[in-house]
Amino acid sequence: MLSEYLEQLRQSAPRIHCITNHVTSNDVANLLLALGAKPIMAQDEQETAQVAAACNGLMLNMGTPDSARMRAMLAAGYQANELGLPVVLDPVGVGASDFRKLWAKQLMDQLSFTAIRGNLSEIRTLAGLHTEASGVDVSERDRVSADQLPETAAWLQELCRRWNTILVVSGEIDLVCDSKRCFAVWNGDPMMQSVTGTGCQLTAMLTAFLAANRQQPLEAALAAVCMMGLSGEIAHSRLLPGEGSGTYRSRMLDAAFCMEGAGLEQGAKYELQ
Questions:
Q1: Whole-number Å distance between alpha carbons of 65 and 143
Q2: Is domain 2-272 annotated with CATH 3.30.930.10?
Q3: C or N terminus of the chain, fewer CB within 10 Å?
Q4: β-sheet with 174-177: strand ranges across
Q5: How high is the pLDDT of residue 146?
Q6: What does the mean pLDDT of the chain come to?
Q7: Quick one: three-class SS letters along the chain?
Q8: Are 254 and 225 in contact (CB under 8 A)?
């Protein structure tokens, strides 16, 4: 099933507008190119609406927010919503400051999102719940364990109904949910946490899969999450003695570039909850 979504992405080569943080902008652009998509990294509010109209999907990442960048996100989001394009929000570290919470609320109030991707602490913050998260990391209390899956999935599906969106929650177990179904994904590797930007790259990958497969967004989101985690697994398996996080980062990009539909199908580890 998942192979067709990757094949459609590579055939259609969607143009993805990324308003992302300056720490990971290069990694995001290279990941999209590895997939076969076409990144545009326009950030200024005077052009973001026009650029969004020329693209097939929009990624909004709050990793390094400032007022001008957030206004640019709104301008691009209005245009993408008007055209019916997929829009994905990544509320990076939304609980770290009142400034981020304020802007996240404005984005949520004024824009419609095809999908929202974050860790469980970030999703809890968006929902107005208390969390003990510090910075961009998930708090220990918000880590999803296998015995909590049914309860967590049910709560996320309620949020999907409330927000009319798909939720992708990253963690040791990833969750991909809409209002009716929720998949648990076991792909991934602990070393992904040693490289900055893997979450941002996943959000970009998610946007590209959604842009290329607009008729089946939940399945497209599932394919993106499985592929990102599988790329991390493959990268780790190919490390040689003396190689560390720098090589691992490049090997992840190589794994995504070289992955074919059959490999994704064979390596994906997911289960409907």
A1: 25
A2: no
A3: N
A4: 38-40, 15-19, 57-61, 87-90, 115-119, 166-170, 174-177, 182-185, 270-272
A5: 83
A6: 94
A7: CHHHHHHHHHHHCCEEEEECCCCCHHHHHHHHHHHCCEEECCCCCCCHHHHHHCCCEEEEECCCCCHHHHHHHHHHHHHHHHHCCCEEEECCCHHHCHHHHHHHHHHHHHCCCCEEEEEHHHHHHHCCCCCCCCCCCCCHHHCCCHHHHHHHHHHHHHHHHHHCCEEEEECCCEEEECCCCEEEECCCCHHHHHCCCHHHHHHHHHHHHHHHCCCCHHHHHHHHHHHHHHHHHHHHHCCCCCCCHHHHHHHHHHHHHHCCHHHHHHHCCEEEC
A8: no
Q: What's the token pair of residue 164?
A: 């009319």
Q: What amino acid occupies position 250?
A: S
Given a cut of 70, the residues of the chain with pLDDT beneath it are 130-142
